[in-house]
Amino acid sequence: MHPHKIDVEPLSEQRWTKIEAGLFERLDREPAPSNLQAPLPQIEAARPWRWKPAAALVLAGAMAAAIGALVSKSFFQSPTPPLASSRIVTTGADSHVAVGESEVDVSPDSAVVVTGDDARGVLVVVDRGKVDCEVAPRKGRPPFVVQAGDVRVRVVGTHFTVARDAQGGGAHVSVSHGVVEVTSHGQTVSVHAGDEWPAAPSPPPAPTAQNTPPVLTPQAGLQAPAPALATPRTRARHAPRTAPQRAPVAQPPIAQAPVTDAPVAPPPPPEPPPPAAPARPPAPSAQELYESANRMEASNPDGAIVIYGKLAAGSGPWAANALYAAGRLQADRGRRGDATRLLNEYLTRYPNGANARDARDLLDKMR
Q1: Is beta strand 121-134 parallel, antiparallel or unpaired with respect to 144-148?
Q2: CA-CA distance, 148 to 321, in Å (whole number)?
Q3: Is the predicted pLDDT of residue 108 greater than 80, yes or no?
Q4: What is the pLDDT of residue 162?
Q5: Quick one: pLDDT at residue 360?
């Protein structure tokens, strides 16, 4: 069937007869023109012949109205096609994806989900790795958005790169040309061409003569102040008394230890300190658990579902991401019941979440 052709059901013979009878009955009730001088029988005889063109025009108008109503009903009741969604996972080579007028290059060892089109907006969710986006000017259309964890990048036409490391999950944005808006932790900043987010820290200022402390050397040490000269006491004018002389007392000789050539035993070594108790490794963060579950999806999907379930039982942005990821993974595995339950739970808890539209699209596809 041609995409722009609309089938219209033809009218039956009974319907045509009813429309024609009603039309002639309406014409018979109208008064005859006053400027006709012919006798009444001639006018009555000529009326059907005179009014047939008008009846054809009215009948054609009724047909056009019926066709217009059927066309309008068929046009306005046509269902809106769902948004296309695709998941791209790369290993040793990159991948190129065209989304309408825009292009997305997925780097090796990356996993992303691309949803949408030019008419209704595009959403690229970076689970891990890096994407390079060349976005055509939107010209008033919905924006092109890249979501990497809690970092959201919104553009209206530019060339930029979003990278996300596999350990910490932090995102890095670099803009080649144009301007993007980066939202993270409730704060939005504009990143222009040639800039990066987060910005590189500025180097510390070079030391100057004013704030450089003096360096002391052994040759130029601090000179201690010279002690003050003591003032001699004035001697007494009278002569000192002399002590009486005593006879020397003989001292006994001091016994000395004999000198031997025997070796002296070294002192015992100090006892080593007791071993310290091993430090307990810190518990993994929610983001690290999410990343580990994402890497387990291909090799151990059941284990990934368990980790996603533990994260979803909590709160915060990673709980929302884990709940949606669990529903999406169950849908990919063909478990429609579990996927429907998880996606409906996500929409109930996070109706305005970052993946709310994706959840609705997956539910529509499974119906």
Answers
A1: parallel
A2: 11
A3: yes
A4: 83
A5: 93
Q: Cα(first)–Cα(last) distance of the chain, in Å?
A: 25
pLDDT in the model for residue 13:
73
Residue closest to 197 by CA, chosen among 156, 162, 155, 159: 162
- pLDDT the model gives residue 8: 53
Structure tokens at 261: 């050539």
Q: How far is CA 23 from CA 30, 54, 67, 306, in A?
A: 11, 10, 19, 74
Alpha-carbon Rg for the chain in angstroms: 48
Mean pLDDT estimate for the chain: 74
Rounded Cα gap, residues 142 and 352, in angstroms = 17
Does residue 164 contact residue 170 with C-beta atoms inside 8 Å? yes
Tokens 């997956």 belong to which residue? 362
| Vertex 6 angle, CA 2 and 7, to 5° | 110
**What CA dihedral angle connects 66, 70, 76 and 79, to 10 degrees?**
170
Residue type, 166: A
Work out whether strand 121-134 and strand 102-106 pair parallel, antiparallel, or are unpaired. antiparallel
What is the greatest pairwise CA distance in the chain? 192
Quick check: helix, strand or coil at residue 324? helix
Residue 300, pLDDT > 90, answer yes
Question: Is the preceding omega at residue 198 within 30 degrees of 0, hence cis?
Answer: yes
DSSP for residue 186 = T
Is pLDDT at 366 greater than 80 in this prediction? yes
Q: Structure tokens of 363?
A: 């539910």
Is 326 a residue whose pLDDT tops 90? yes
